[in-house]
Amino acid sequence: MFIIDIFSRMRRTIHQKVLDKEPGLYVSLIFPISVAFLLTFVGARIFSHLYPDFYIPWSKTIRIHHYAYGFFVLAASGYLALIFSGPRAKFLISLLHGFGLGLAFDEFGIWLKLSDSNPARWSYDGFLVMSGLFLFVISAGPGLKMLKILWPFGPRLRT
User: Fold this and answer.
1) Is there a contact between 129 and 39 (Cβ–Cβ < 8 Å)?
2) Cα–Cα distances in Å, from 14 out to 31, 40, 48?
3) Which tens digits make up the pLDDT trace of 20-61?
4) Whole-structure pTM over 0.70, yes or no?
5) Domain membership of residue 60 as a residue range
6) pLDDT for residue 54
7) DSSP per-residue string spanning 70-130
8) 54-96 pLDDT tens trace
């Protein structure tokens, strides 16, 4: 039940920010994107390291890398962002977008070099993790402020 409370608080808060023309609405949406990106990216790296031969067998001749699934998730999140504009949708779509970015950018080295060499892997991974942490730190203030407002066990908004 507290999930419904979070979303109703989010809707009221975002609605008020839009009415007051208050800046920082989209900066607070970077927070769930960066959290989902970092969790997905690190999780995909760990999973790929532990199970390097794991893949979904669509056919005997085709092997689809998980970054392709990330592109599909990004396409879906972009389409959903065009359709839905409510506060609940913005939050969930931002989580979905971060998830897609994490899957897609996990194989960033393959995009650039079309090979998977270990020294290059560490430099690309380090760059992406540092970029994700940078966005996380930049958006942590507004994101945590929004989270405090949306958290069901904190002080309530008065509307």
Assistant:
1) no
2) 15, 26, 38
3) 766 655 667 777 888 888 889 888 888 877 887 777 777 777
4) no
5) 2-150
6) 74
7) HHHHHHHHHHHHHH--SHHHHHHHHHHHHHHHHHHHTTHHHHHHSS--HHHHHHHHHHHHH
8) 777 777 777 777 778 889 999 999 999 889 877 777 878 988 9
157 in a domain, yes or no? Answer: no
What does pLDDT average to over the chain?
74
Residue 87 lies in a domain: yes
Helix axes 118-150, 25-50, angle to 10 degrees: 140
State both tokens at 61.
């001749």
Q: What is the distance of C-alpha 120 from the center of its chain?
A: 24
CA distances from 3 to 36, 44, 54, 97 (A): 18, 27, 34, 20
Q: Is residue 156 included in any domain, yes or no?
A: no
CB-based contact 120:15 (threshold 8 Å): no
Rg (CA), the chain: 18
Tokens of 142: 């507004």
Q: How many domains does the chain have?
A: 1
